[in-house]
Amino acid sequence: MTEERFPLFPLSAHLLPEGRMALRIFEPRYLRMVKEACAENKGFVMCMLNANGDKDKNEHIHKIGTMASVIDFDMLDDGLLGIKVAGSQLVEVSDIKTEKDGLRTGSCQSIAQWDCALAPQQLAPMDERLKEIFSDYEELALLYDAPKFDCPNWVLNRWLELLPVDGAQKQHFLAQKECTGLLHYLSALIA
Questions:
Q1: Phi and psi (nearest 5°) for 70?
Q2: Which residues have a Cβ under 8 Å from the Cβ of 156 and sit 6 or more positions away?
Q3: Model pTM?
């Protein structure tokens, strides 16, 4: 993907490549974003919020985000728009601008995520614990047609989405060239 401008959707929840998320859309700027993304088959970027950043200067959005596309939508019982999104690839966001309705856009350039070639025993017990979480939380499991519990990148991305750590720590892991830092962190946490 060459550098291109995309709408930004900052959230405290995080979406990473091959991840899925259900969202309730109600703000007019995000309704417009979803409508345009679907009409143009273009998508938008899910961004992590930076609690220490100045919102007026658009520093409240971390610079690594995930391209997202709408894969399903429905009108909810409360009249809000419900959408299901899928993450595809990491992007680096720069030159954030605010449109008159408050929707932010940014120049986005694809970046590579680490590739983890781990043996099955190196992935254990992270894969088993993730299976337990999917078993315990049906709403999470229902987002995925075919979970990839045997794929190291998929498992690590799901853990990074679920971990109760701030966006700055997640950004640190995503900026690494290798998955070993996250792997050691998770191994210590889950053991």
A1: -80, 125
A2: 116, 126, 179, 182, 183, 186
A3: 0.92
